[in-house]
Design goal:
The complex is a heterodimer of chains A (about 350) and B (about 300). With about 350 residues, chain A is mainly α. Chain A is about 75% helix and about 0% strand. Chain A has a domain of about 240 residues: MetI-like fold (Orthogonal Bundle), CATH 1.10.3720.10. Chain A contains 15 helices and no strands. In chain A, helix 7 packs antiparallel against helix 13, helix 9 crosses helix 11 and helix 12 crosses helix 13. Chain B is an alpha/beta fold. Chain B folds into 2 domains: about 180 residues, Rossmann fold; about 70 residues, no CATH class. Chain B is about 35% helix and about 20% strand. Chain B has a 6-stranded mixed sheet, with helices on both faces. Chain B has a 4-stranded antiparallel sheet with strand order 2-1-4-5, with helices on one face. In chain B, helix 4 packs parallel to helix 7 and helix 10 crosses helix 11. Chain B is globular, with a radius of gyration of 20 Å. The two termini of chain B are about 30 Å apart. Classes of the chains: A mainly alpha (about 350), B alpha/beta (about 300). At the A-B interface, helix 12 and helix 13 of A face helix 4 and helix 7 of B. The structure holds adenosine-5'-triphosphate and magnesium ion.
Chain lengths: ~350, ~300
């Protein structure tokens, strides 16, 4: 026992932190399965009528077969335990719509969403931090005013509307955006490695495919990023104004450092620590924003999958999606905490 | 002091924008001259504009501040031309240590980084060379294990140690003049003497000029700025700033200052911020009141301020 204890404390801080967080995350996921299972039980609506046609639903034999196939004939607690048992073996059950294992569906749809959300997040961070820094430096002068309007617009324009309008303008009117989907019609997907087409194309050196996949990514990612650009810009501006007024920034200037160093090293760094936290939360928001963006751009991602599953009361699919999204939240939060601690040495992980 | 002083501040005045769109004269008529290797004290009560005067010399006044008078460092005009004059000497020839060591060091940058970044900048030397200089300087200010200290962060040091680090950082670039802005005010009394002794020793060893800002005349006398000191004091509010005649010209004899000056005219409509009135008093060794003041500063202050 004491051996275990000393072995545990011999581990590097970071490793201990990750292990502890993963353990807590596991418990959280268990809770999520319970909640999502309970929700699927209490939602009004019957998976039988949602999935079977009228004729089939009126045939008791077919209904019984359907219920037996998806375990709906067993008592509810037993259904849950069965679900957990399969889950431990990496089996999320079978989707009633696609008639495929939910894990297979997720492996197909999730990477598309991750690709989209990550591209949007990178864009939002780069644009938001840049605009926020410029606004803080030019405080109350015209760059600040212009950027204030931009960020206000960013947070107030509804994402769904923006998606429709930009698609209409850039595709129908100007014809510079490629069509919907992840590739041109009939385009061949790159070899499946991560199922993120840009990454896969890059890894296998298919430059044309890379260009096509990237060009399809630009518009949806931008639309998805706009809200976050606005919020990160505002937040960065405030955090920069705060840190620019600190004594240590004045001290950095007194040391005769060039203004660029003062801003980018001494002032931005403390601001970044705060921005990372906001970005982590924004990523969560972005994942839910994908539902709308994906449906406008026919992006075959998890958002669309979740939406269709919800309509069809496809219980296993819904639970699978909730579980995976929860896991992503947990991992992103953990990453945020680690990055925060990397930026600010006063924070100790653990 | 032979020839021109290293730093001379002549008739410096600083006015700051106020919240209601007006301007407040925060510093007025400050004269300071510091020769090579000399230590000069600048004393005054809190809010009398000591820090602002120092920032003016560095060209680091808050935006919107306007200035009058001249600041000349080694024949170079520091104010005016958009502060470009000050930018050329800042950190390189003219270094400053700030009032509060708890906030003046960057909390997220290692001591080593903060000790060397300006060295690399000003002296065009490599990282390794800069590290060597910084470690030597940390050793000189008596930071234990200077090599390891380089990798640590400010929060891992006590207030006194942080001030030593700030001093080491300021001096690492080899400046000719150090402005120490109340370097001991934020510190425990037990560490204060150590820091002051350190500054005095460094001044002698490095042939440094020092402008020591303090509101403690005892500190001044302890540092041996007996001969030369400048007093600033507040005593004028926004309203009377232009109209009132200089309250003091205590050239030779502070005792001549009118008593009434001790309490600024009450101006009910004015925000609590009483605006400072500055008077310069380069004193002379045989000025009797000064000698008296320095012998028992605390009593002197109480009797005057
Ligand atoms: N950034 C600023 N904006 C507006 N007013 C300021 C600013 N900095 C200082 N002041 C004002 O200028 C006056 C002089 O301030 P300063 O910091 O120079 O005083 P000080 O003599 O250094 O006092 P202390 O001994 O407390 O450090 C004060 O009335 C202060 O309120
Ligand atoms: Mg001050």
């Amino acid at each position: 026992m004491s051996f275990l204890r000393s072995a545990w404390y011999a581990l590097p801080n970071l490793v201990r932190f990750v292990i502890r967080r993963l353990f807590v995350g596991l418990l959280l996921c268990l809770g999520i399965t319970l909640v999502s299972f309970a929700l699927t039980q209490v939602v009004p609506g019957d998976p039988v009528s949602a999935n079977l046609g009228d004729r089939a639903a009126s045939d008791p034999e077919i209904v019984a077969a359907f219920r037996a196939r998806y375990g709906l004939d067993k008592p509810v607690p037993q259904q849950y335990l069965l679900y957990l048992e399969r889950l431990v073996h990496g089996d999320l059950g079978e989707s009633q719509q696609t008639k495929r294992p939910v894990t297979t569906d997720l492996a197909q749809y999730l990477p598309a969403t991750i690709e989209l959300a990550t591209a949007a997040m990178i864009l939002a961070l780069v644009l938001g931090i840049t605009l926020g820094v410029v606004a803080a430096i030019g405080r109350d002068r015209w760059p600040d005013q212009v950027i204030r309007v931009i960020s206000l617009a960013g947070v107030s324009i509804p994402t769904f509307w923006l998606a429709l309008v930009t698609f209409y303008i850039f595709f129908f009117k100007l014809g510079i955006a490629p069509g919907v989907g992840r590739l041109n019609p009939g385009g061949k997907a790159p070899p499946s490695i991560t199922n993120m087409f840009t990454i896969d194309a890059l890894l296998s050196g298919q430059w044309t495919t890379l260009g096509i996949a990237a060009s399809h990514l630009v518009l949806p990612a931008t639309v998805l990023a706009i809200y976050t650009v606005g919020s990160i810009t505002r937040f960065t501006r405030a955090a920069m104004l705060e840190s620019l007024s600190q004594d240590y920034v004045r001290a950095a200037r007194a040391k005769g450092l060039p203004e660029r160093t003062v801003i980018l090293r001494h002032a931005l760094r403390p601001a970044l620590a705060a921005i990372v936290t906001v970005a982590g939360m924004a990523f969560g928001r972005m994942l839910s924003g994908t539902v709308l963006v994906e449906s406008v751009f026919s992006w075959p991602g998890i958002g669309q999958y979740a939406y269709k599953s919800a309509l069809a009361l496809d219980l296993r699919a819904i639970m699978g999606v909730s579980l995976v999204v929860a896991a992503i939240y947990i991992l992103v939060n953990m990453a945020v905490d680690i990055i925060y601690a990397l930026i600010d040495p006063r924070i100790r992980l653990g | 002091m032979a020839g021109a002083p290293l730093l001379s501040i002549e008739n410096l005045s600083i006015s700051l924008p106020t919240a209601d769109g007006g301007r407040a004269l925060a510093v007025r008529g400050v004269d300071i001259a510091i020769g090579e290797g000399e230590i000069v004290g600048l004393a005054g009560e809190s809010g009398s504009g000591k820090t602002l005067s120092a920032l003016a010399a560095l060209g680091l006044l808050p935006s919107g501040a306007t200035t009058g008078g001249r600041v000349v460092f080694d024949g170079r005009e520091l104010m005016g031309e958009g502060g470009r004059g000050a930018a050329a000497v800042r950190g390189r020839d003219l270094a400053m240590v700030f009032q509060d060591p708890m906030t003046a060091l960057h909390p997220m940058l290692s001591v080593g980084r903060q000790m060397t970044e300006h060295l690399v900048q000003h002296r065009r030397i490599g990282r390794a060379e800069a590290d060597r200089i910084a470690i030597a300087m940390l050793d000189r200010v008596r930071i234990p294990n200077p090599k390891e200290a380089m990798a640590r962060f400010p929060h891992q040091f006590s207030g006194g140690m942080r001030q030593r680090i700030a001093i080491a950082s300021a001096l690492a670039a080899g400046p000719r003049l150090l402005i120490a802005d109340e370097p001991t005010t934020a510190l425990d009394v037990t560490v204060q003497a150590g820091i002051l002794r350190l500054i005095e020793n460094l001044r002698r060893e490095l042939k440094l000029s020092v402008l020591l800002i303090t509101h403690d005349l005892g500190v001044m006398s302890a540092l041996g700025c007996r001969g030369r000191a400048t007093l600033t004091r507040a005593g004028c509010s926004t309203r009377c700033r232009m109209a009132a005649p200089p309250i003091t010209r205590c050239r030779h004899c502070p005792a001549r200052r009118p008593r009434s000056a001790a309490s600024p005219p009450a101006a009910p409509s004015i925000r609590a911020a009483a605006l400072p009135r500055i008077s310069a008093a380069p004193t002379f060794p045989n000025c009797l009141p000064w000698a008296r003041a320095m012998r028992s500063p605390a009593r002197w202050i109480r009797s005057r301020w």
